[in-house]
Write a structure and sequence with these properties.
With about 300 residues, this protein is an alpha+beta fold. Helix content is about 20%, strand content about 35%. The protein contains 6 helices and 16 strands. The strands form 2 sheets. Strands 1, 2, 3, 4, 5, 6, 8, 9, 13 and 16 form a 10-stranded mixed beta sheet that branches. A 6-stranded antiparallel beta sheet has the order 12-11-10-7-14-15, covered by helices on one side. The radius of gyration is 21 Å and the shape is globular. It starts with a strand and ends in a 5-residue tail after the last strand.
Length: about 300
């Protein structure tokens, strides 16, 4: 039996706007009052619908399929042999990655004129060939095993990240904690701790390295290592700033004990609403995750 195809999408900006404003006319008026035109929203929506329809048309008639919205991922049960087809923009891939355990992922760029296509590199018309490859495994494509990060709290709560973790105060200010790494320990007050994978090294982590002038090469997406940064550490008689950056190799943990009475949080991949509390008495251990994101990409080998 062919594996089930799980189509992961998110609401288009037009759909979100209509949910908030109720009707098309009210949405148009809302945008016009702010000097914007609804035509751009409509064009993006039409483009997505056409791309999604093109993908669906290439799924074999006897192949099971189900569509899941990004907002429902935390309640969806993935089967071990599911083939996950993400249709949209790159940010959807990290959204779904944390809920997977080795399933193959195909990223389809619904609008190459708007989205870079780093994690969704394939055009809609490739969907059929990609699904055939899952069964035939020719040289046309390969599985890129992108490294993920893992954070575990002392009570067993776990969270995966494809890009990065943030640990600190929800306001991104006055985060107090004890950081331990490589046999060293330091009490700190900062704007929080960021821990990035190689995939995330081109995003938030890149802005931190450029702002601070860090010249060390960050991990690549398939390298089993994480880069960690302390954001704006503050020196005082009670806190230090010596431990502010490093690279974690596989098997090397970074441990943080929270000293925050309230509003301490841990979240992954920029999704602050999907967070874990990180308050006094909580301990978080960050390491390279045993799980990889199995992303199907075009092979460099000529076909």
């Amino acid at each position: 039996m062919r594996p089930r195809v799980v189509l992961v999408t998110r609401k288009t900006p037009l759909e979100v706007l209509l949910e908030r404003r109720g009707t098309h006319d009210q949405a148009r008026f809302h945008l016009r009052s702010r000097g914007q035109d609804i035509a751009d929203y409509e064009a993006a929506h039409t483009q997505f619908e056409a791309a999604f329809a093109q993908v669906v048309q290439q799924i074999a008639a006897d192949q099971r399929r189900v569509r899941v919205n990004r907002d429902d991922l935390d309640r969806f049960l993935f089967a071990p042999d599911d083939v996950v087809v993400v249709v949209g923009q790159d940010g959807l891939v990290p959204n779904v990655a944390k809920y997977l355990s080795g399933q193959l992922v195909i990223g389809v760029n619904s609008n190459p004129d708007r989205f870079d296509g780093v994690l969704c590199p394939h055009r809609p018309e490739e969907a059929g060939a990609l699904l055939e490859w899952v069964e035939e495994r020719t040289d046309l494509y390969r599985v890129q095993e992108r490294v993920m990060g893992l954070v575990e709290r002392e009570d067993g709560q776990r969270m995966l990240a494809l890009n990065e973790f943030y640990l600190g105060h929800r306001s991104h200010q006055s985060s107090k904690y004890v950081l331990r790494v490589g046999g060293k320990e330091e009490r700190q007050s900062s704007s929080g701790v960021l821990c990035s994978t190689g995939t995330g090294a081109t995003g938030w982590a890149r802005s931190v390295t450029e702002q601070r002038g860090i010249e060390e090469v960050l991990p690549s997406p398939e390298q089993a290592a994480l880069a960690w940064f302390v954001r704006e550490p503050f020196p005082s008689v009670w806190t230090g700033t010596d431990l502010d950056f490093g690279i974690l190799q596989e098997g090397e943990p970074l441990t943080i004990d929270s000293l925050m009475g309230d509003d301490g949080v841990i979240f992954a991949d920029g999704i602050e609403s999907d967070r874990v509390e990180f308050l006094d008495g909580h301990r978080a251990t960050i390491s390279v995750a045993p799980t990889r994101l199995n992303l199907i990409v075009r092979s460099a080998v000529p076909d």
